[in-house]
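Mods, move this if it's the wrong board.
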Amino acid sequence: MGDQIKLSAAQVKSSLKKLEDKDKALFLSRYFKTAPGEYGHGDKFLGIKVPESRKIARSSRNLSLPEIQKLLDSKYHEQRLVGLFILVLKFDQASDKEQKSIYHFYVKNLNNVNNWDLVDSSAPQIVGRFLLNKDKAILYKWASSKNLWKRRVSILSTLHFIREKKYRDALNIGEVLLDDSEDLIHKGVGWMLREIGNRDIKKEEMFLKKHYQKMPRTMLRYAIEKFPEKKRKDYLLGRI
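Not the wrong board. Structure tokens:
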């Protein structure tokens, strides 16, 4: 039981602060595009490696939702990330009623899930799992949002559906996002198409043959990354 001792958000923040690495923080600020006009503008980093953040999250998994809220409200990226890691751990162990509460708590905090790694490490595990056998209209609403991160949540949440061999929503949302202007969305859709192809290549190619000529190049490259070289070149050169 030693790894499940209840802690406060302040204690979690203190544990993270002790691991601060200013050189690493500078690198992460550049990597996650925090300059004016970039997608992560204004985000601040402590410079902590993800495995260290996960370790702290595991030791803090009993943190209450109000305490997790304090982490999600933090200006520091890693503190928000740990809050999301804890939320995923709690969701894994929760009853149906508790999972519903965690899902709604997550949705309420979408403005704090504001970089691609924060989305990718939480949306499939919480939104995707919760909505697997439920109405998914909210994903289509987010797919049409002006908010980049809501759009990424909409497509990344379908990763859980894909793992359960349910592809329809990923394909439909992929169509909604075909004309998206953001590279991070192109990558997300391409990634989901590749995941579908790993399980059902015919389903992926039906989508590609319909759309590949107008797909953003990055989206197409991600989608066909594991294709045989000749077929990959044929798609890239428009010879399908």
